[in-house]
Design brief:
It is a single chain. By secondary structure, this protein is an alpha+beta fold. The protein is built from two helices and three strands, in the order H-E-E-H-E. The chain has a three-stranded antiparallel beta sheet with strand order 1-2-3, with helices on one face. A hairpin with a 2-residue loop joins strand 1 and strand 2. It is elongated and about 60 Å long. The two termini are 19 Å apart.
């Protein structure tokens, strides 16, 4: 589970994606523009004895190892060990 990002009624998916991009850029993630962002708004979460509607924001970030791939290619030029790894992170929060 990642950082908390408020999902408010009437907020467009584009606005949520822009906020996520802003967080990634502020965190100095070099491939922020390549990350895939998924938003699902039809989730439910438990709150006390009841439930509430919720949204889940999932970021699939393409992480690339800085040293592993170049070193592996010194041994075998066709090596794909250490290639891009998609790292998913998600957060779910109540729709407010």
């Amino acid at each position: 589970e990642g950082a908390r990002i408020a999902v408010l009624p009437g907020t467009s998916d584009a606005a949520v994606e822009e906020r996520v991009q802003t967080y990634m850029v502020a965190g100095q993630l070099p491939r922020a523009a390549d990350a895939e962002i998924e938003i699902t708004r039809d989730n439910t979460i438990s709150i006390g004895a009841g439930t509430a509607t919720a949204s889940r924001v999932t970021v699939n970030y393409p992480f690339e190892f800085i040293m592993l791939q170049p070193v592996a290619r010194l041994v075998t030029s066709s090596a794909n060990f250490g290639s891009v790894l998609i790292m998913p992170a998600s957060a779910m929060m109540r729709n407010e």
